Protein backbone atom coordinates (compact mmCIF):
# COMPACT_ATOMS: atom_id res chain seq x y z
CA UNK A 1 0.00 0.00 0.00
CA UNK A 2 1.53 3.30 -1.04
CA UNK A 3 0.82 6.25 1.20
CA UNK A 4 1.89 9.27 -0.77
CA UNK A 5 0.56 12.17 1.28
CA UNK A 6 2.17 13.92 4.17
CA UNK A 7 0.51 15.54 7.14
CA UNK A 8 1.41 18.34 9.48
CA UNK A 9 1.44 16.73 12.93
CA UNK A 10 2.23 19.34 15.52
CA UNK A 11 4.37 21.23 13.03
CA UNK A 12 6.23 18.23 11.62
CA UNK A 13 5.49 16.49 8.31
CA UNK A 14 4.59 12.86 8.87
CA UNK A 15 3.23 10.16 6.55
CA UNK A 16 -0.01 9.95 8.55
CA UNK A 17 -1.95 12.56 10.51
CA UNK A 18 -1.02 11.19 13.93
CA UNK A 19 1.86 9.64 15.83
CA UNK A 20 1.41 6.85 18.35
CA UNK A 21 3.48 7.56 21.47
CA UNK A 22 2.98 4.44 23.56
CA UNK A 23 0.72 1.55 24.55
CA UNK A 24 -1.67 3.24 26.98
CA UNK A 25 -4.04 0.59 28.21
CA UNK A 26 -5.55 -2.76 27.46
CA UNK A 27 -8.90 -4.45 28.06
CA UNK A 28 -8.82 -8.09 29.12
CA UNK A 29 -11.81 -10.40 29.20
CA UNK A 30 -12.11 -13.07 31.89
CA UNK A 31 -14.61 -15.67 33.01
CA UNK A 32 -14.62 -14.41 36.57
CA UNK A 33 -14.05 -10.78 37.46
CA UNK A 34 -13.48 -11.47 41.15
CA UNK A 35 -10.65 -13.88 40.32
CA UNK A 36 -9.30 -11.25 37.96
CA UNK A 37 -9.34 -8.71 40.76
CA UNK A 38 -7.56 -11.07 43.09
CA UNK A 39 -4.77 -11.33 40.52
CA UNK A 40 -4.50 -7.78 39.15
CA UNK A 41 -5.56 -5.90 42.27
CA UNK A 42 -4.52 -7.98 45.26
CA UNK A 43 -1.38 -9.59 43.83
CA UNK A 44 -0.12 -7.14 41.20
CA UNK A 45 -1.25 -3.98 42.98
CA UNK A 46 -3.46 -2.35 40.33
CA UNK A 47 -5.93 -0.02 41.98
CA UNK A 48 -9.57 0.13 40.98
CA UNK A 49 -10.58 3.58 39.74
CA UNK A 50 -14.13 2.90 38.59
CA UNK A 51 -16.49 0.05 37.82
CA UNK A 52 -19.97 -0.42 36.48
CA UNK A 53 -22.33 -3.38 36.11
CA UNK A 54 -22.32 -4.37 32.43
CA UNK A 55 -25.73 -6.02 32.69
CA UNK A 56 -27.42 -2.78 33.66
CA UNK A 57 -27.19 -1.73 30.02
CA UNK A 58 -29.77 -4.39 29.23
CA UNK A 59 -33.44 -4.86 30.13
CA UNK A 60 -34.25 -7.15 33.05
CA UNK A 61 -35.36 -10.12 30.91
CA UNK A 62 -31.96 -10.29 29.19
CA UNK A 63 -29.97 -10.53 32.40
CA UNK A 64 -28.70 -13.96 33.29
CA UNK A 65 -28.19 -15.21 36.83
CA UNK A 66 -25.25 -17.40 35.76
CA UNK A 67 -23.11 -14.31 35.22
CA UNK A 68 -22.78 -13.70 38.88
CA UNK A 69 -20.53 -10.74 38.48
CA UNK A 70 -20.68 -8.74 35.30
CA UNK A 71 -18.97 -5.61 36.43
CA UNK A 72 -16.47 -3.94 34.14
CA UNK A 73 -13.54 -2.79 36.27
CA UNK A 74 -11.04 -0.04 35.47
CA UNK A 75 -7.64 -0.31 37.13
CA UNK A 76 -4.48 1.77 37.23
CA UNK A 77 -0.90 1.56 38.46
CA UNK A 78 -0.07 5.25 38.05
CA UNK A 79 -1.87 8.47 37.16
CA UNK A 80 -3.69 7.14 34.09
CA UNK A 81 -7.31 6.44 35.05
CA UNK A 82 -6.99 2.97 33.55
CA UNK A 83 -4.19 0.80 32.29
CA UNK A 84 -5.92 -2.57 32.58
CA UNK A 85 -9.69 -2.96 32.19
CA UNK A 86 -11.31 -6.26 33.19
CA UNK A 87 -14.49 -7.41 31.46
CA UNK A 88 -16.73 -10.44 31.86
CA UNK A 89 -16.18 -12.55 28.74
CA UNK A 90 -19.20 -14.91 28.93
CA UNK A 91 -21.60 -12.08 29.69
CA UNK A 92 -20.38 -10.10 26.69
CA UNK A 93 -20.64 -13.19 24.47
CA UNK A 94 -24.33 -13.55 25.31
CA UNK A 95 -25.52 -10.01 25.92
CA UNK A 96 -23.52 -7.77 23.62
CA UNK A 97 -25.87 -6.77 20.80
CA UNK A 98 -23.05 -5.79 18.44
CA UNK A 99 -21.45 -9.07 17.29
CA UNK A 100 -18.23 -7.25 16.41
CA UNK A 101 -17.87 -6.34 20.06
CA UNK A 102 -18.12 -9.89 21.36
CA UNK A 103 -14.97 -11.81 22.15
CA UNK A 104 -14.83 -14.87 19.99
CA UNK A 105 -12.32 -16.74 17.89
CA UNK A 106 -9.71 -16.61 20.61
CA UNK A 107 -9.55 -12.83 20.80
CA UNK A 108 -9.72 -12.20 24.52
CA UNK A 109 -8.34 -8.67 24.54
CA UNK A 110 -11.20 -6.22 24.44
CA UNK A 111 -9.09 -3.33 23.27
CA UNK A 112 -5.49 -2.42 22.53
CA UNK A 113 -5.20 1.29 23.18
CA UNK A 114 -2.45 3.49 21.82
CA UNK A 115 -1.85 7.03 23.01
CA UNK A 116 -1.54 9.77 20.40
CA UNK A 117 -0.10 13.19 21.12
CA UNK A 118 -3.12 15.46 20.70
CA UNK A 119 -6.89 15.54 20.24
CA UNK A 120 -6.38 16.87 16.70
CA UNK A 121 -4.37 13.73 15.88
CA UNK A 122 -7.17 11.46 17.10
CA UNK A 123 -9.85 13.37 15.20
CA UNK A 124 -7.83 13.42 11.98
CA UNK A 125 -6.81 9.79 12.39
CA UNK A 126 -10.44 8.71 12.65
CA UNK A 127 -11.20 10.13 9.19
CA UNK A 128 -7.86 9.06 7.71
CA UNK A 129 -8.21 5.44 8.83
CA UNK A 130 -11.65 5.33 7.22
CA UNK A 131 -10.19 6.79 4.04
CA UNK A 132 -7.57 4.02 4.02
CA UNK A 133 -10.33 1.42 4.19
CA UNK A 134 -9.73 0.45 7.81
CA UNK A 135 -12.87 -0.83 9.53
CA UNK A 136 -13.60 1.76 12.19
CA UNK A 137 -15.92 0.96 15.08
CA UNK A 138 -16.77 4.20 16.84
CA UNK A 139 -15.33 7.56 17.82
CA UNK A 140 -16.00 10.02 20.59
CA UNK A 141 -15.16 10.08 24.26
CA UNK A 142 -15.93 7.36 26.78
CA UNK A 143 -16.58 7.66 30.47
CA UNK A 144 -15.11 6.72 32.83
CA UNK A 145 -11.61 7.71 31.81
CA UNK A 146 -12.58 10.80 29.77
CA UNK A 147 -10.23 9.93 26.90
CA UNK A 148 -11.13 11.02 23.36
CA UNK A 149 -10.79 8.18 20.91
CA UNK A 150 -11.16 6.44 17.61
CA UNK A 151 -11.75 2.68 17.68
CA UNK A 152 -10.94 0.48 14.69
CA UNK A 153 -10.10 -3.11 13.79
CA UNK A 154 -6.84 -4.54 12.59
CA UNK A 155 -6.86 -7.20 9.86
CA UNK A 156 -7.26 -9.96 12.47
CA UNK A 157 -10.23 -8.39 14.23
CA UNK A 158 -8.33 -6.98 17.20
CA UNK A 159 -9.99 -3.79 18.36
CA UNK A 160 -7.42 -1.02 18.51
CA UNK A 161 -8.00 2.39 20.00
CA UNK A 162 -6.16 5.61 19.34
CA UNK A 163 -6.75 8.06 22.17
CA UNK A 164 -5.80 11.35 23.72
CA UNK A 165 -6.34 12.90 27.14
CA UNK A 166 -6.71 10.10 29.67
CA UNK A 167 -8.07 11.31 33.02
CA UNK A 168 -5.24 11.51 35.54
CA UNK A 169 -5.75 10.35 39.10
CA UNK A 170 -3.92 12.64 41.49
CA UNK A 171 -2.51 12.56 44.96
CA UNK A 172 -5.84 11.87 46.64
CA UNK A 173 -6.48 8.73 44.56
CA UNK A 174 -10.06 9.76 43.72
CA UNK A 175 -11.48 9.32 40.24
CA UNK A 176 -13.64 11.89 38.49
CA UNK A 177 -17.18 11.74 39.94
CA UNK A 178 -19.89 10.09 37.85
CA UNK A 179 -21.76 13.41 37.94
CA UNK A 180 -19.04 14.80 35.67
CA UNK A 181 -19.50 12.11 33.03
CA UNK A 182 -21.99 14.20 31.07
CA UNK A 183 -19.21 15.36 28.71
CA UNK A 184 -19.39 12.00 26.94
CA UNK A 185 -19.32 11.94 23.12
CA UNK A 186 -20.68 9.18 20.91
CA UNK A 187 -19.27 10.57 17.69
CA UNK A 188 -16.14 12.21 16.39
CA UNK A 189 -16.02 15.60 18.15
CA UNK A 190 -15.77 19.00 16.55
CA UNK A 191 -12.52 20.65 17.56
CA UNK A 192 -11.47 22.66 19.43
CA UNK A 193 -13.06 21.40 22.64
CA UNK A 194 -12.95 23.09 26.04
CA UNK A 195 -10.00 22.06 28.21
CA UNK A 196 -10.38 19.63 31.09
CA UNK A 197 -9.58 22.48 33.47
CA UNK A 198 -12.58 24.38 32.12
CA UNK A 199 -14.72 21.25 32.48
CA UNK A 200 -13.77 21.07 36.13
CA UNK A 201 -14.60 24.75 36.58
CA UNK A 202 -18.00 24.09 35.03
CA UNK A 203 -18.62 21.09 37.30
CA UNK A 204 -17.64 23.06 40.39
CA UNK A 205 -19.96 25.89 39.32
CA UNK A 206 -22.77 23.30 39.08
CA UNK A 207 -22.09 22.26 42.64
CA UNK A 208 -20.62 18.84 41.83
CA UNK A 209 -18.46 17.53 44.68
CA UNK A 210 -15.07 16.93 43.07
CA UNK A 211 -14.08 14.50 45.84
CA UNK A 212 -17.10 12.23 45.37
CA UNK A 213 -15.46 9.82 42.90
CA UNK A 214 -14.24 6.31 43.67
CA UNK A 215 -11.24 5.69 45.90
CA UNK A 216 -9.79 2.21 46.23
CA UNK A 217 -8.47 0.46 49.32
CA UNK A 218 -5.26 -1.55 49.45
CA UNK A 219 -4.00 -4.28 51.75
CA UNK A 220 -1.77 -3.92 54.78
CA UNK A 221 1.58 -2.26 53.96
CA UNK A 222 3.99 -4.94 55.13
CA UNK A 223 6.86 -4.72 52.63
CA UNK A 224 9.79 -2.31 52.60
CA UNK A 225 10.01 -1.56 48.88
CA UNK A 226 13.20 0.40 48.41
CA UNK A 227 12.38 2.59 51.37
CA UNK A 228 8.60 2.81 51.08
CA UNK A 229 6.09 0.51 52.75
CA UNK A 230 3.75 -1.17 50.29
CA UNK A 231 1.26 -4.02 50.36
CA UNK A 232 3.45 -6.14 48.05
CA UNK A 233 7.21 -6.23 47.54
CA UNK A 234 7.29 -4.56 44.13
CA UNK A 235 5.63 -1.85 42.08
CA UNK A 236 4.42 -2.13 38.48
CA UNK A 237 5.76 0.97 36.73
CA UNK A 238 4.74 0.41 33.13
CA UNK A 239 2.34 -1.56 30.98
CA UNK A 240 3.42 -3.37 27.80
CA UNK A 241 4.70 -4.77 25.56
CA UNK A 242 1.79 -6.77 24.23
CA UNK A 243 2.41 -10.09 22.47
CA UNK A 244 -0.16 -11.50 20.04
CA UNK A 245 -0.47 -14.75 18.11
CA UNK A 246 -1.67 -13.99 14.59
CA UNK A 247 -2.36 -16.09 11.48
CA UNK A 248 -0.02 -14.04 9.30
CA UNK A 249 2.86 -12.22 11.01
CA UNK A 250 4.10 -10.44 7.86
CA UNK A 251 0.67 -9.11 6.91
CA UNK A 252 -0.05 -8.03 10.48
CA UNK A 253 3.33 -6.32 10.81
CA UNK A 254 2.65 -4.52 7.51
CA UNK A 255 -0.72 -3.27 8.83
CA UNK A 256 0.80 -1.83 11.99
CA UNK A 257 3.75 -0.34 10.10
CA UNK A 258 1.94 1.18 7.13
CA UNK A 259 -1.29 2.28 8.76
CA UNK A 260 -0.23 3.01 12.31
CA UNK A 261 3.41 3.99 11.86
CA UNK A 262 5.07 1.24 13.89
CA UNK A 263 8.72 0.46 13.14
CA UNK A 264 10.08 -3.03 12.83
CA UNK A 265 12.92 -3.39 15.33
CA UNK A 266 13.80 -6.97 14.44
CA UNK A 267 12.45 -10.31 13.38
CA UNK A 268 13.39 -13.56 15.05
CA UNK A 269 13.11 -17.00 13.50
CA UNK A 270 12.29 -19.61 16.10
CA UNK A 271 11.85 -23.25 15.08
CA UNK A 272 11.34 -22.06 11.52
CA UNK A 273 8.64 -19.58 12.58
CA UNK A 274 9.16 -15.88 11.96
CA UNK A 275 8.22 -13.49 14.74
CA UNK A 276 8.23 -9.68 14.54
CA UNK A 277 9.01 -7.08 17.21
CA UNK A 278 7.63 -3.60 16.53
CA UNK A 279 8.13 -0.31 18.33
CA UNK A 280 6.40 3.06 18.57
CA UNK A 281 9.04 4.94 20.56
CA UNK A 282 12.51 4.13 21.89
CA UNK A 283 11.45 0.89 23.55
CA UNK A 284 12.72 -2.16 21.72
CA UNK A 285 9.13 -3.26 21.14
CA UNK A 286 5.63 -2.36 22.18
CA UNK A 287 4.02 -5.07 20.08
CA UNK A 288 5.36 -8.58 19.46
CA UNK A 289 3.78 -10.77 16.79
CA UNK A 290 4.07 -14.55 16.82
CA UNK A 291 2.55 -17.01 14.36
CA UNK A 292 -0.34 -19.07 15.70
CA UNK A 293 1.78 -22.19 15.20
CA UNK A 294 4.15 -20.90 17.88
CA UNK A 295 1.35 -21.07 20.44
CA UNK A 296 1.16 -24.83 20.05
CA UNK A 297 4.92 -25.25 20.22
CA UNK A 298 4.98 -23.18 23.38
CA UNK A 299 2.31 -25.42 24.90
CA UNK A 300 -0.04 -22.51 25.52
CA UNK A 301 -3.82 -22.54 25.67
CA UNK A 302 -5.71 -22.35 22.39
CA UNK A 303 -8.40 -20.36 24.20
CA UNK A 304 -6.62 -17.05 23.63
CA UNK A 305 -4.61 -15.46 20.86
CA UNK A 306 -2.90 -13.22 23.39
CA UNK A 307 0.70 -14.32 23.78
CA UNK A 308 1.45 -12.12 26.79
CA UNK A 309 0.93 -8.81 28.47
CA UNK A 310 4.21 -7.29 29.65
CA UNK A 311 4.42 -5.41 32.93
CA UNK A 312 7.55 -3.59 34.01
CA UNK A 313 8.50 -3.36 37.67
CA UNK A 314 10.75 -0.70 39.18
CA UNK A 315 14.04 -2.63 39.32
CA UNK A 316 15.72 -6.02 39.29
CA UNK A 317 15.51 -6.58 43.03
CA UNK A 318 11.77 -5.96 42.83
CA UNK A 319 11.47 -8.36 39.92
CA UNK A 320 13.04 -11.10 42.02
CA UNK A 321 10.81 -10.19 44.95
CA UNK A 322 7.75 -10.22 42.68
CA UNK A 323 8.67 -13.70 41.48
CA UNK A 324 8.92 -15.04 45.02
CA UNK A 325 5.75 -13.23 46.05
CA UNK A 326 3.64 -14.51 43.17
CA UNK A 327 4.98 -18.06 43.56
CA UNK A 328 4.16 -18.01 47.25
CA UNK A 329 0.61 -16.92 46.37
CA UNK A 330 0.08 -19.90 44.10
CA UNK A 331 0.66 -18.29 40.69
CA UNK A 332 1.66 -20.79 38.04
CA UNK A 333 4.90 -19.83 36.35
CA UNK A 334 5.12 -20.54 32.63
CA UNK A 335 8.40 -20.74 30.71
CA UNK A 336 9.12 -18.51 27.73
CA UNK A 337 12.09 -19.12 25.39
CA UNK A 338 14.99 -16.69 25.62
CA UNK A 339 15.16 -16.50 21.81
CA UNK A 340 11.65 -15.04 21.74
CA UNK A 341 12.63 -12.28 24.12
CA UNK A 342 14.87 -9.85 22.21
CA UNK A 343 15.38 -6.58 24.07
CA UNK A 344 14.36 -8.04 27.43
CA UNK A 345 16.59 -10.27 29.52
CA UNK A 346 15.34 -11.01 33.00
CA UNK A 347 11.64 -11.77 32.97
CA UNK A 348 9.18 -14.38 34.19
CA UNK A 349 5.64 -15.30 33.22
CA UNK A 350 2.59 -16.15 35.27
CA UNK A 351 -0.88 -17.04 34.04
CA UNK A 352 -3.76 -14.72 34.88
CA UNK A 353 -7.16 -16.26 35.71
CA UNK A 354 -8.37 -15.48 32.18
CA UNK A 355 -5.63 -17.55 30.54
CA UNK A 356 -3.38 -14.60 29.60
CA UNK A 357 0.31 -14.82 30.24
CA UNK A 358 1.56 -11.86 32.21
CA UNK A 359 5.24 -11.24 31.66
CA UNK A 360 7.07 -9.28 34.34
CA UNK A 361 10.42 -7.70 33.57
CA UNK A 362 12.43 -4.77 34.86
CA UNK A 363 14.13 -3.21 31.88
CA UNK A 364 13.95 -3.14 28.12
CA UNK A 365 16.61 -2.14 25.60
CA UNK A 366 16.06 1.31 24.11
CA UNK A 367 16.50 1.95 20.40
CA UNK A 368 18.35 5.07 19.32
CA UNK A 369 18.35 7.28 16.23
CA UNK A 370 19.95 4.64 14.03
CA UNK A 371 17.22 2.08 14.78
CA UNK A 372 19.73 -0.67 15.52
CA UNK A 373 18.91 -3.11 18.33
CA UNK A 374 21.65 -3.93 20.81
CA UNK A 375 23.47 -7.22 20.13
CA UNK A 376 21.93 -9.99 22.21
CA UNK A 377 23.36 -10.23 25.69
CA UNK A 378 24.42 -13.62 27.05
CA UNK A 379 21.44 -15.79 27.99
CA UNK A 380 19.73 -15.54 31.36
CA UNK A 381 20.99 -18.27 33.75
CA UNK A 382 18.44 -20.64 35.28
CA UNK A 383 19.43 -19.42 38.72
CA UNK A 384 19.04 -15.63 38.78
CA UNK A 385 21.92 -13.90 40.60
CA UNK A 386 21.10 -11.70 43.55
CA UNK A 387 22.79 -8.71 41.92
CA UNK A 388 23.37 -8.16 38.21
CA UNK A 389 26.47 -6.81 36.60
CA UNK A 390 24.70 -5.15 33.68
CA UNK A 391 25.89 -2.42 31.37
CA UNK A 392 23.61 0.65 31.12
CA UNK A 393 20.29 -0.59 32.56
CA UNK A 394 17.23 1.50 33.51
CA UNK A 395 17.05 3.56 30.32
CA UNK A 396 13.80 4.98 29.01
CA UNK A 397 11.33 7.21 30.84
CA UNK A 398 11.37 7.14 34.65
CA UNK A 399 8.31 6.40 36.74
CA UNK A 400 6.76 9.68 37.88
CA UNK A 401 5.44 10.13 41.37
CA UNK A 402 5.65 7.99 44.50
CA UNK A 403 5.64 4.18 44.24
CA UNK A 404 2.53 4.02 46.35
FE1 LIG B 1 -9.91 2.72 25.87
UniProtKB/TrEMBL annotation:
Residues 395-404 have a biased composition (Pro residues). Keywords: Dioxygenase, Oxidoreductase. The keyword Nucleus does not apply. Residues 383-392 have a biased composition (Acidic residues). It comes from the Bacteria. The keyword Oxidoreductase applies. Residues 22-165, 238-363 form the VOC domain. Residues 372-404 are annotated as: Disordered. GO terms for molecular function: dioxygenase activity. PANTHER family: GLYOXALASE DOMAIN-CONTAINING PROTEIN 5, GLYOXALASE FAMILY PROTEIN. This is Extradiol dioxygenase. It comes from Sulfobacillus harzensis. The lineage of its organism: Bacteria, Bacillati, Bacillota, Clostridia, Eubacteriales.
